[in-house]
């Protein structure tokens, strides 16, 4: 023995792969050789005995993984935090390790029941800074970390493991003497990688390749300048040696079958706190909050979404209460404690949770934080960014509903604190008070009735994207909705691109306007130009729509039309003067349907009606959208997304485009009321009109 260090090992008398609790054990049940295991363990034991003092704990029958003493607990000074194993297959080891710690005079700390923590397998001291790197994601729970910080009085840095082959921190991460770090970055999420890079300077980071990682190169025992490990590549060996270490390789293949190697087989039991000054600084960055969710949490999948988003963002949760409603229609309620390794991640998680309707429960956070606008058109940092869902802000103890709900806005609170309004950044003025952070903000999801949750494929509640084959089906439903809206005096807004004309849809859209189905028309310069080109010259971008061929000189047609309309002053005048006699624009004018044409950089002309001031165009669009029951978005990515951005939840949106990407983009807003139809828009409109006519025909109804 050359060092005053103590290590704990456990002879492999009862070692075997008996069950599967990590991917290494899969396919290896009872496949390891006892003799070879004993031989390899003895070799390791021999190597270590030359370096340190090795103590032994008695192996117990029935607990084959007890050889992996790294998982006994975590030691610092005379304190030992006993492991709480995640899997029942290993929980029986706990009393034996506890007894051993006590026999050696350690004060043993035990975590609350059901809060797993797997000892030094998931907690490693930095050999320079003295802080504790603690892993979570597979075995140990993030919520165990604050206990470590408190009991051991040490700063804890939480690292999230994301590759199940590296389920314990010590399988992919090994701090070395002098502040060096041997590790496999892809085993960690990006946030954890950033944390590591912030703490360990690049020249001290020894990054290993996957081939070495799967040989458990990081599962090394480091004693001063010696590093003891399973066989590794020559390249890595050279790299480690270059950093001034002596690499000692010893074969541990039999233990790899259970998912362990050198480090797992040992527990360092002499750990002295590094310099008082370091150890007292910020104990643990782990933050916790409680949120409540109500609704049809199971049917709607909200609960899964909520829990997934917490873990996907590196957080952890504990369901404090889950009250499943009693009747078929009752809603359920969940109270969930969320923890995150840092304030930033907590904010990210809260943002997403609030978006799906969670409400923060902490008493002191039930008031929205307000900050004044200090510069016109600029919000305070961290302003709450709105979504499409109805949103409430808690001001002076009252929840108030935001007016003009739309996404990507700030919430401005009136001076008397009585009203809240969604305001675009550019509309903010000095003196406005804006909500910052997520405290005191909640979004409201209307609880779907249970029936609706068993969705038909293309029902409006389906948020589905249909393919060509099912177009008829979805058209039937849309036609039905259109009829309803018209008959009750509702509002249908159509936004469309010129493809409507190119694909022969213009007469059908004109029919919809004429028959009173459309209350407002939104588009760009092009739809109007090509519609009138077709009305006046029978072509669309120079193509004869009846014959499908280009007409001689046809490429100039649309400019001639623009020129004529300019002569008349605007579209209204051109229609009234009899220049335009059919088509979409004609019907808008003759039926007094308001339209807004928003300009763009590629516009020819433009028509005098085209609004080239985009801020003004946005304003006019949102004015038209107000009060809409449904928006039919026809083959224009630009206008569909523009419109989608202004539309609050609750407005049904039907997006028709031949490009699935456009349709998906729209349904990704997460609005349950939107439906996407991937098809040719001309075909869609013709089917729609056909269906509407069928609804009008008494014969069809009787049939
Ligand atoms: N079969 C054991 C388990 O899955 C292996 C433990 C390895 N220990 C370690 N510190 N990585 O729990």
From TrEMBL:
UniProt cross-references to Gene3D superfamilies, sorted A to Z: L-arginine/glycine Amidinotransferase, Chain A, LOR/SDH bifunctional enzyme, conserved domain, putative lor/sdh protein like domains
Q: Name one GO molecular function term.
A: dimethylargininase activity
What is the active site of this protein?
A: 168 (proton donor), 264 (nucleophile)
So which cofactors does this thing need?
NAD(+)
Query: Which residues belong to any copy of the LOR/SDH bifunctional enzyme conserved domain?
Result: 289-389
Its domain of life reads Bacteria
The protein's Enzyme Commission number: 4.3.1.12
What InterPro entries does this protein's entry cite? ArgZ/ArgE-like (IPR005239), ArgZ/ArgE-like_C_1st (IPR048964), ArgZ/ArgE-like_C_2nd (IPR048963), DDAH-like (IPR033199), LOR/SDH_bifunc_enz_cons_dom (IPR007545), LOR/SDH_bifunc_enz_cons_dom_sf (IPR043009)
Which EC class heads this enzyme's classification? lyase
Q: Where is the Arginine dihydrolase ArgZ/ArgE-like C-terminal second subdomain domain?
A: 476-688
Question: What is one Gene Ontology biological process annotated in the Swiss-Prot or TrEMBL record?
Answer: citrulline metabolic process
Limits of the Arginine dihydrolase ArgZ/ArgE-like C-terminal first subdomain domain: 390-475
Ordered alphabetically, the record's keywords are:
Hydrolase, Lyase, NAD, Nucleotide-binding
- Name the NCBIfam families on file: TIGR00300 family protein
What family is this protein classified in?
Answer: Belongs to the DDAH family.
Protein name, entry field: ornithine cyclodeaminase
């Amino acid at each position: 023995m050359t060092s005053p260090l103590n290590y704990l090992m456990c002879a492999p008398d009862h070692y075997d792969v008996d069950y599967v609790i990590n991917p290494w054990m899969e396919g290896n049940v009872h496949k390891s050789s006892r003799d070879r295991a004993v031989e390899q363990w003895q070799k390791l034991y021999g190597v270590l005995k030359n370096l340190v003092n090795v103590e032994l704990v008695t192996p117990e029958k029935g607990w084959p993984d007890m050889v992996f003493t790294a998982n006994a607990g975590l030691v610092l000074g005379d304190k030992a935090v006993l492991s709480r194993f995640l899997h029942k297959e290993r929980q029986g080891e706990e009393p034996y390790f506890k007894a051993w710690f006590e026999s050696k005079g350690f004060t043993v700390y035990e975590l609350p029941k059901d809060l797993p923590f797997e000892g030094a397998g998931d907690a490693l001291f930095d050999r320079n800074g003295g802080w504790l790197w603690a892993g979570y994601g597979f075995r140990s729970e993030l919520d165990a970390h604050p206990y470590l910080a408190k009991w051991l009085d040490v700063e804890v840095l939480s690292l999230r493991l994301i590759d199940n082959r590296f389920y314990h921190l010590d399988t992919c991460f090994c701090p070395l003497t002098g502040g060096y770090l041997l590790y496999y970055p892809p085993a960690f999420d990006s946030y954890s990688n950033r944390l590591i890079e912030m703490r360990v300077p690049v020249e001290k980071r020894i990054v290993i390749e996957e081939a070495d990682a799967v040989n458990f190169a990081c599962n090394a025992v480091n004693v001063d300048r010696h590093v003891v490990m399973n066989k590794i590549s020559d390249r890595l060996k050279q790299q480690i040696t270059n950093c001034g270490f002596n690499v000692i390789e010893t074969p541990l293949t039999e233990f790899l079958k259970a998912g362990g190697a050198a480090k797992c087989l040992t527990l360092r039991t002499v750990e002295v706190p590094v310099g008082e000054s370091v150890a007292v600084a910020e104990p643990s960055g782990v933050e916790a909050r409680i949120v409540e969710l109500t609704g049809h949490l199971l049917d709607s999948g909200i609960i899964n979404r909520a829990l997934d988003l917490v873990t996907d963002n590196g957080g952890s949760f504990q369901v404090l209460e889950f009250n499943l409603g009693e009747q078929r229609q009752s809603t359920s309620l969940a109270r969930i404690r969320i923890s995150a390794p840092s304030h930033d991640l907590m904010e990210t998680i809260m943002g997403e949770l609030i978006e799906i309707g969670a409400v923060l429960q902490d008493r002191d956070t039930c008031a929205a934080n307000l900050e004044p606008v200090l510069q016109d058109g600029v919000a305070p940092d961290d302003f709450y960014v709105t979504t499409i869902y109805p949103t409430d802000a808690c001001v002076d103890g009252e929840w108030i509903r935001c007016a003009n709900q739309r996404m990507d806005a700030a919430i401005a609170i009136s001076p008397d604190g009585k009203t809240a309004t969604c305001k675009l950044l550019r509309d903010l003025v000095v003196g406005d008070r804006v909500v910052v952070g997520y405290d005191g903000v909640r979004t409201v999801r209307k609880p779907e009735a249970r029936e609706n949750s068993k969705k038909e494929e293309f029902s409006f509640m389906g948020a589905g994207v249909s393919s060509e084959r099912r177009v008829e089906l979805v058209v039937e439903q849309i036609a039905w909705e259109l009829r309803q809206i018209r008959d009750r005096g509702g509002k249908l807004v159509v936004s469309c691109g010129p493809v409507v004309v190119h694909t022969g849809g213009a007469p059908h859209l004109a029919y919809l306007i004429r028959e009173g189905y459309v209350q407002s028309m939104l588009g760009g310069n092009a739809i109007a130009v090509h519609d009138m080109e077709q009305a006046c010259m029978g072509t669309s971008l120079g193509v004869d729509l009846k014959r499908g061929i280009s007409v001689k000189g046809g490429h100039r047609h649309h400019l001639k039309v623009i020129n004529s309309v300019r002569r008349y002053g605007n579209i209204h005048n051109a229609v009234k003067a009899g220049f335009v006699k059919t088509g979409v624009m004609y019907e808008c004018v003759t039926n007094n349907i308001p339209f807004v044409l928003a300009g763009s950089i590629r516009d020819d002309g433009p028509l005098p009606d085209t609004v080239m001031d985009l801020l003004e165009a946005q304003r006019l669009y949102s004015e038209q959208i107000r009060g809409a029951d449904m928006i039919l978005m026809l083959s224009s990515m630009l206008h569909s997304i523009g419109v989608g951005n202004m539309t609050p939840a609750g407005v049904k949106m039907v997006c028709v485009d031949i490009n699935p990407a456009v349709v998906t983009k729209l349904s990704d807003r997460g609005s349950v009321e939107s439906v996407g139809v991937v098809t040719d828009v001309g075909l869609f409109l013709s089917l729609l009109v056909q269906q509407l006519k069928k609804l009008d025909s008494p014969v069809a109804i009787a049939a």
